[in-house]
Every structure is written in C-alpha cells, then in structure tokens.
Amino acid sequence: MLQEEIVLVDRDDNEIGIAEKLETHRRGDLHRAFSVLIWDSAGRLLLQRRQIGKYHSGGLWTNSCCGHPRPGERSGDAALRRLGEEMGFACALTPIGTFLYRAELEDGLVEHELVHLFRGTYDGPIAPNPDECDGFNWLAPDAIHREIAAAPETFTVWFRKYVEAGWPLSPPLEVA
After folding, report:
1. Are the CB atoms for 147 and 156 separated by under 8 Å?
2. Beta strands, E only, the chain
3. Residue 133 appears among annotated catalytic residues
4. Is residue 89 within 8 Å of residue 142, measured between CB atoms?
5. How far apart are CA 25 and CA 167, in angstroms?
6. What's the CA angle centered on 103, arms 56 and 52, to 5 degrees?
7. Choosing from 66, 86, 111, 133, which is the catalytic residue?
C-alpha cells in the first residue's frame, strides 16, 4: 500500500492535522472520509465487493464507493474522483449529510471517521478497477436488509452501521 495522507478532524469536522493513513487507522484517530451511494432508476443500490487484497475489509460488500479526501481536497471532489477510480464512471452527486462512527477492525486497526455521504443516480456501464473492486451488484433496500441479517460478516462494518442507523437506505426522490 502506498503511503497516503488523510485529514484529521474534530467532531465538528474542523481540520486539526494531517497524518499517514495506515498509522491513523492503527491509532484510531478521528478523520474525514466520504461514502457514495449510487442508485439506478429501478430503485436499487450499487454495492461493490472490496478487492480481497485491501489492507482491511477485503472481500466484503459495501456501499458504491468510499475513501478519504486528500489534504486540501473537498469531500465532494474526492467522492467524484474515487467513483471514477473505483467503479469507472461518473455521475452527479448530491451531499446528504454526515455520519460519525468508530469501529474495531481486524489486525488491530480502528475506523474512526466523520463521513460525508453523497448519493447519485446512474444507469450506464460500470467498469470496476480490479485493484479496488472484486465485483458489484445492484440490490433493492429490502434485499440489502435480508442479506445483512443472513450474513452480516460479509459486509463492511461501516455499511452495516449505515443500514442499522437507517442511513439513508432509500433511493433518491427522483427515482420512481
């Protein structure tokens, strides 16, 4: 894994420093992140299966795209950048709020993130980057709930937390 710097924040999302990503996850420092939820016109959410070799949560199902803004990069710009890098497409994204969580991961790592959430609607081709994604699937909200209830260990901890909190697992209003 390449060394990457991420933005440390306080609970009000004020920047308080910059740190190396892996070390931040070892210490459990609160940092800025983003998650993208892409819906199709049939009201299904695009899920991706994280590449098995990721340094944490590899092989698990999660939201459409996620990551960390670079120092000096706005969260919305980072979300668009990573959507293209991970899933091979772009679409308009709308900010829908923030989500704060802390979770213990494998190998002593800790996710402690203030997440900026974005949603979009997309019905075109998807070309996932095999270095980022081991597959994708479109699922309706009720199917997502059933899958998580049946096998929670196959989903990332943050995506399960979004679903448990009711965060927003419903298509955008413009989707019929």
Report:
1. no
2. 5-9, 15-20, 31-39, 45-50, 61-62, 65-67, 94-104, 110-121, 133-139
3. no
4. no
5. 23
6. 15
7. 66
Higher pLDDT, 55 or 120: 120
* Residue tagged 């009000």 (tokens): 12
Distance CA 51, CA 61 (A): 10
Please tell me which residue in 65, 86, 113, 133 is annotated as part of the active site.
Answer: 113
Mean pLDDT of 142-168: 91
Residue 105 token pair: 């991961």
Q: What CA–CA distance (Å, rounded) separates 129 from 134?
A: 8
> For residues 57, 50, 31 and 5, what is the CA-based torsion angle, rounded to 10 degrees?
110
pLDDT at 2 over 70: no
Residue 66 designated active-site:
yes
Six token digits for residue 53: 């070799």
On average, the pLDDT of the chain sits at 92
Phi/psi of residue 8, each to 5°? -85, 140
Question: According to the model, what pLDDT value does residue 176 have?
Answer: 36
How far is residue 89 from each of residues 124, 126, 137, measured CA to CA in Å? Answer: 8, 6, 15
Decide: 66 and 35 in contact? Cβ < 8 Å.
Answer: yes
pTM, two decimal places: 0.91
- 53 exposed, middle or buried (CB, 10 Å; 0-12, 13-18, 19+)? exposed
